[in-house]
Amino acid sequence: MKTITVIGTGYVGLVGGAGLSDFGNTVICCDIDTEKIEMLNNGEIPIYEPGLEEVLARNIKSGRLSFSTDLDLAIRQSDVIFIAVGTPQGENGEADISQVISVARQIGKNLRSYKLICTKSTVPIGTGQKVIDVIKSINNNIEFDYVSNPEFLREGAAVKDFLWPDRVVIGAENERAFEVMKDVYRPLYINETPIVLTNIATAETIKYASNAFLALKISYINEIANLCEKIEGDIHQVARAMGLDGRISSKFLHPGPGYGGSCFPKDTNALVTMADKQGINISTVKAAISANDLQKQGMVNKLRKLVGGSFASKRIAVLGLSFKPQTDDIRDSAAIIMIEELLKGGADIRAYDPIAMDSMKKSFPDLHYCAGWQPAVQDADAVVIMTEWNEFRGLDLEDLGKRLSKKIILDTRNIYRPVELKRLGFSYENVGRMFVV
Ligand SMILES: NC(=O)c1ccc[n+]([C@@H]2O[C@H](COP(=O)([O-])OP(=O)(O)OC[C@H]3O[C@@H](n4cnc5c(N)ncnc54)[C@H](O)[C@@H]3O)[C@@H](O)[C@H]2O)c1
Q1: Is residue 263 among the annotated active site residues?
Q2: Which fold would CATH assign to domain 211-429?
């Protein structure tokens, strides 16, 4: 097995580093964020990810996993270097690869012996070549190989996705690089996980093509849900019947307030921008992006209508802040648009999320955050469900009704049964469901 440095200890780097050490490799997770590394060295976990604590603990105990801010030393000590830094949306929709390039420079400066450099960050097609050029421009004497190994884990199920992936994609240009990666992922080879071996540009493309397709599916079902509202159809029955068709599959057919998160919004934008530059108009993904923007705005309009046309001086309980359950990640969460519009409209917001409030406080420090859903909804004029945490699925609707000043709910995740809310006398909106179902 190999000695590996993972550069960037975020959602991907930390889970990936823990997973790679679980596979038997010796892993040093590095970050420039000293606070993060300090936390990890003190046994604390800087992100919320179910199951991560256990994997971290057993690999730290075995001595195979450590954390450091000393990138130079870690690079020199390792056979394989994974790049897992952020690639946020930059100008004009393009992915900003400055963190990747800065890491490439640091690798170039510390190259003393053969290494395999592997990018896990989602990077625009052609970035692999840029990384190679940067390293060579600094150090042209020492041999290295480059691999693109995009990551497909989902936040909230990241540990399982990393340890038991549907597939592993490895893009490389020579046999030696493939052999090193086979060693890194040996347990997956043994249990016959599908491994796609391809060239670098294809591997980079697979990541964007996959994410954009899922985003497209979500936008599609959201638009069908909007149609259902007009024709008294029920989107859950439509989606269920569609999903029973093996060609379609039931995954990503759940309507909601529009996709968010750290990947779909930026990756769809990056893909269409990249393709435009190549003279290819990916109109389907462009349509998915605008449908998604409209969906998020549509939720705001629904809530405004429910509360009588204006948010001014209305007390609104916002339940759920993360972009999906089981994560503390709020990047591009639909809750952000909702909160921004509520603030613009003069609402008095009471926000609650079981896990993501600390993340949201970094962007909205002055919101009124509550310690539970009960204080959040107390005397509110309406409640809006933005994330389908189990805690909200299971709440006592009768109790909720008694606490609210007006029995108004916007359920953007369709977690409540319309018939039940009707029975309890709520004014209610959802996404594409009939009141009687
Ligand atoms: N989050 C996901 O669900 C997911 C899934 C698949 C792929 N990805 C991709 O993986 C990449 C990382 O995503 P993430 O969500 O883990 O990001 P993140 O923001 O959680 O973590 C990135 C980390 O990199 C660190 N970093 C930045 N510059 C550095 C440097 N020069 N040296 C060392 N560390 C540095 C940051 O401090 C941060 O801790 C992105 O390209 C993303 O698109 C993310």
Answers
A1: yes
A2: Rossmann fold (3.40.50)
